[in-house]
C-alpha cells in the first residue's frame, strides 16, 4: 500500500516549542506575500503560448536534472527518462517514464527535490499518497486530467502562484519579441523580464563561441576580429535588453577572475579567440578582461551584475556526447573571490550605479569571502544559496555563515533559479519558512526583538530583491 503523503503545517520550523511558536507567527506574516523571482530559467514562451503542459513526465522529469541525475546514478538510462540521445536511440513513452520515476521515488527522501515535489503534488494536485509502482498509473491519470483544465494553463498558474516578477535568461541576440508581446498583451497582467546572459559571447572556451561572435559581428555590421566593434555590439545588445525591461546581466563563469589587459592586449587576444588559435591560459585572461568590461557596462547602463561561478560543466564526456548539456553531470568546484575580483572592486566596488550579486556553490566562501566583501563594498550583495545548496539545511547554514558579518540588508533575497515552473511556489515557501526559523531563534535568544524580526522577514521576501535588482 502506498504511504500517506501529508504536508506538516510546521515543516522546516524549529522543533523547540517556544522557538516554533515565534517562527509560526513570522512565517504567517510572509506566507501570502507575492513572489519576486529576479533570476530563473523558465522559457518565456511557456507564458506567452499559454498551452497546456503535455504530460506529467514532461512536466516533472524530462527537463529537471535534479530529478534525472539520481535515477541515472541508480542505473536508469537517460533515454528511459524521455531524454533524446544524439544517436537516435528510442526513448521511453511518457507514461513509462512516469512509472520509472514512481518506482524510484524513495531515492528522493531527504532531498530538496523530494521536498519540492511533495509540496507540489499535495498543494496543486491534492495527492495524498507517495508515488510508488502500484499507484503510478493512477497518479499519472490524475495529474494529466488536471493539466487539461484551464486552471492549469501557465498564465492561470502564474496568477495563482502570486508571481509579481519573473525573470528569464536569454541569449544576447534574442530579439525579445516574446517579451515585447507579453508586455503589450492587455490580457496578461504579470511582469516577465529578460536577463542578458553573454557567456557564449565572452568566454572563448564556451561551446559555440566562434559561431556566436560571428553572428554578433553580422548583426553589428563590423569585421568579426574588430575588438572595438565587438564591444560596441555588446553594449547595443545590452541596451536592447534594457529597453525590453531587463534588470540584470548574468555571468556563469568557471571562476570570478577579473583582469585589466588594456585595449591593445585585449584586442590581440580577441583576434586569436575568433580565429580559434587562443590558448586556454589566454582564454582565461580574455574572459577575465571581459568580466571587468561587463562591470563597466553595468555602471553605464544600470544592469545588475550577477556572477554564478564554480561549476565544472559536462563532467561526464560520454553523457555530454550522447545527451548534451544540462543532463545532470555539472559538478561544483571551489571558488576564490578575494583576489580574483579585486581588479573589478578596485575600480567599481564602491560605485553607486553598480549592483554586484555574488553567488557560490562552494559553501566555504560565504563566511570567508562573500560576506566580508558585501560588508564593505557598496556594490556587493550576497547571492542566495544556489543550485546544489538551495536546500533546507544548506540555507540555514548560509544564514548562519553570512548574517553576523553582513547582516540581512546585504543579501539578494531568495533566488529560485529554476526551469521547473511548478516548483516556484514550493521553493519560495521553503525559503520563507527557513528565514522564519532562523529569525525566530534570534528572537528567542534575545538577539533581535520580535518587531524587528517581522520587518526583516517581510523585507527578505519583497523589499530586498526589489532593491537589489532595481525592480
TrEMBL record:
Enzyme Commission number: 5.3.1.12
MF term (GO), any: glucuronate isomerase activity
Biological process terms in GO annotation: D-galacturonate catabolic process; D-glucuronate catabolic process
Catalytic activity: D-glucuronate = D-fructuronate
Record key words, sorted: Isomerase
Pathway(s): Carbohydrate metabolism; pentose and glucuronate interconversion
Alphabetical list of InterPro entries matching this protein: Metal_Hydrolase, Uronate_isomerase
Enzyme class at the top of the EC tree: isomerase
Stored Pfam families: UxaC
Family: Belongs to the metallo-dependent hydrolases superfamily. Uronate isomerase family.
Name of the protein: Uronate isomerase
Organism of derivation: Schumannella luteola
Amino acid at each position: 500500500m502506498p504511504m500517506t503523503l501529508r504536508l506538516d503545517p510546521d515543516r522546516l520550523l524549529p522543533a523547540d516549542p517556544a522557538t516554533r511558536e515565534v517562527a509560526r507567527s513570522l512565517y504567517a506574516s510572509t506566507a501570502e506575500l507575492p513572489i519576486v523571482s529576479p533570476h530563473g530559467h523558465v522559457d518565456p514562451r511557456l507564458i506567452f503560448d499559454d498551452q497546456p503542459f503535455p504530460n506529467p513526465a514532461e512536466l516533472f522529469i524530462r527537463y529537471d536534472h535534479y530529478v534525472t541525475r539520481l535515477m541515472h546514478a541508480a542505473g536508469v538510462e537517460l533515454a528511459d527518462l524521455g531524454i533524446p540521445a544524439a544517436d537516435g536511440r528510442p526513448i521511453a513513452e511518457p507514461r513509462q517514464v512516469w512509472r520509472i520515476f514512481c518506482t524510484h521515488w524513495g531515492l528522493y527522501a531527504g532531498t530538496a527535490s523530494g521536498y519540492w515535489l511533495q509540496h507540489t503534488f499535495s498543494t496543486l494536485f491534492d495527492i495524498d499518497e507517495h508515488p510508488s509502482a502500484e499507484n503510478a498509473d493512477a497518479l499519472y491519470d490524475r495529474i494529466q486530467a488536471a493539466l487539461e483544465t484551464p486552471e492549469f494553463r501557465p498564465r492561470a498558474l502564474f496568477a495563482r502562484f502570486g508571481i509579481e516578477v519573473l525573470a528569464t535568461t536569454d541569449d544576447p541576440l534574442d530579439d525579445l519579441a516574446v517579451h515585447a508581446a507579453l508586455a503589450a498583451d492587455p490580457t496578461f497582467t504579470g511582469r516577465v523580464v529578460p536577463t542578458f546572459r553573454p557567456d557564449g559571447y565572452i568566454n572563448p572556451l564556451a561551446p559555440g563561441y566562434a559561431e556566436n561572435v560571428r553572428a554578433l559581428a553580422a548583426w553589428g555590421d563590423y569585421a568579426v576580429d574588430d575588438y572595438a566593434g565587438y564591444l560596441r555590439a555588446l553594449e547595443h545588445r545590452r541596451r536592447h535588453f534594457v529597453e525590453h525591461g531587463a534588470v540584470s546581466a548574468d555571468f556563469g563563469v568557471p571562476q570570478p577572475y577579473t583582469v585589466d589587459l588594456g585595449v591593445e592586449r585585449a584586442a590581440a587576444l580577441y583576434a586569436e579567440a575568433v580565429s580559434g588559435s587562443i590558448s586556454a591560459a589566454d582564454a582565461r585572461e580574455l574572459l577575465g578582461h571581459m568580466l571587468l568590461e561587463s562591470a563597466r557596462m553595468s555602471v553605464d547602463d544600470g544592469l545588475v551584475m550577477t556572477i554564478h561561478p564554480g561549476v565544472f560543466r559536462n563532467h561526464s564526456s560520454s553523457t555530454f556526447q550522447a545527451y548534451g548539456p544540462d543532463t545532470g553531470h555539472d559538478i561544483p568546484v571551489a571558488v576564490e573571490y578575494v583576489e580574483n575580483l579585486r581588479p573589478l572592486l578596485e575600480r567599481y566596488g564602491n560605485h553607486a550605479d553598480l549592483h554586484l550579486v555574488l553567488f557560490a556553490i562552494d559553501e566555504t566562501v560565504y563566511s570567508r569571502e562573500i560576506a566580508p566583501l558585501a560588508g564593505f563594498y557598496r556594490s556587493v550583495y550576497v547571492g542566495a544559496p544556489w543550485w546544489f545548496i538551495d536546500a533546507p539545511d544548506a540555507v540555514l547554514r548560509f544564514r548562519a555563515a553570512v548574517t553576523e558579518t553582513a547582516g540581512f540588508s546585504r543579501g539578494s533575497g531568495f533566488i529560485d533559479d529554476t526551469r521547473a515552473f511548478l516548483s516556484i511556489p514550493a521553493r519560495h515557501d521553503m525559503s520563507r519558512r527557513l528565514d522564519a526559523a532562523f529569525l525566530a531563534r534570534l528572537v528567542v535568544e534575545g538577539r533581535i526583538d520580535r518587531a524587528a524580526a517581522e520587518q526583516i522577514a517581510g523585507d527578505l521576501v519583497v523589499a530586498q530583491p526589489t532593491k537589489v535588482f532595481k525592480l
